[in-house]
Specification:
Layout lengths: L2 H22 L4 H18 L15 E4 L5 H11 L4 H4 L30 H15 L5 E6 L7 H11 L5 E7 L2 E2 L2 E2 H4 L5 H7 L3 E6 L3 H9 L9 E6 L22 H24 L1
Parallel strand pairs: 1-2, 2-3, 3-7, 6-7
Antiparallel strand pairs: 4-5
Helix pairs in contact: 1-2, 1-3, 1-10, 2-3, 2-9, 5-6
């Protein structure tokens, strides 16, 4: 798919996300919105072997959502990809639903229970190492939060990935600069992320996670034979795509009222209409 087609899918997923979170009256919508572009690119352009009819196909690429509290973004992506039925997604927030506030393996297409922050990279390393040991060519992708970088287990994992030359492992930090208690640099300073991870032996690149063209360029540039694990520091905006949420810490976890939902949907629908026009012309 080209960038315009992926932008359209991302906006359609963004609209669905807003509606789902509004209906459920719960969700980490700010971080959902900041990582949605990267997640769309992964599932619709980058990852190989994904088959809703065979979610455990041996050769599939693996995805681990380490920042599991942003599971709503994953749910709408899985729905758009065909893993999750719309009537199931509509049960989010209801008693008896298989959909929890963090990823669970009861949901088709989800590889592992996650969301205990700091664990996802270690799990992804196990998957990547298994592929090396079994001489399989599937890749593993791990999406982390920037507030999550305060967990020490991440850096143990970073050392292990370098030790085992896991060039089939790609990690992404959703660098939206805000966590539940405020700006990351006020809570637990992270900079320089690039220097820190480079010192751990990783192939580190900065990308604009709000820009689908830049995301695609970045993933296309990966050298899966260089003997190094890969990290993208994805510079994003909390609440991206909804004007009144962007860059506001309180939307880390926020419940929209009816008026806010309507405003958000209206903004997104305008972009959807424009992208539909552009893609039909091209």
């Amino acid at each position: 798919m080209n960038a315009k087609e992926l932008k359209l899918i991302a906006e359609q997923n963004r609209k669905r996300l807003v509606e789902v979170v509004y209906r459920a009256k719960a969700g980490h919508i700010g971080g959902d919105l900041s990582c949605l572009n990267v997640m769309t690119a992964l599932y619709f352009n980058v990852m190989r072997g994904l088959d809703p009819a065979d979610p455990k196909a041996p050769g599939r690429d693996r995805f681990v959502l380490s920042k599991g509290h942003c599971v709503e973004a994953l749910y709408v992506t899985l729905e758009a990809k065909g893993f999750l039925k719309s009537e199931v997604l509509d049960t989010l927030g209801q008693f008896g639903s298989i959909l929890s506030g963090h990823p669970t393996i009861e949901v088709p297409g989800i590889e592992v229970n996650s969301g205990a922050l700091g664990h996802g990279l270690s799990i992804g390393i196990g998957m990547a190492l298994a592929a090396k040991m079994d001489r399989r060519d599937y890749r593993t992708f791990v999406l982390m939060g920037d507030g999550e970088q305060g967990e020490g287990s991440i850096y143990e994992a970073a050392m292990a990935a370098h030790r085992y030359c896991l060039d089939n492992l790609v990690a992404v930090i959703d660098r939206n600069h805000l966590q539940i208690s405020g700006n990351t640099e006020d809570v637990m300073p992270l900079e320089s992320i690039h220097d820190r991870w480079t010192a751990f032996g990783w192939d580190v690149k900065a990308i604009n996670g709000n820009d689908m063209d830049d995301i695609l360029r970045a993933f296309d540039s990966i050298d899966y034979s260089n003997g190094k694990p890969h990290l993208f520091v994805s510079d994003t905006t909390k609440g991206f795509g909804v004007s009144f949420m962007e860059g506001i810490a309180k939307w880390h976890h926020g419940v929209l009222n009816e008026q806010q939902c309507r405003q958000a949907v209206d903004e997104i629908e305008k972009r959807i209409d424009q992208l539909k026009t552009e893609t039909s012309i091209s």
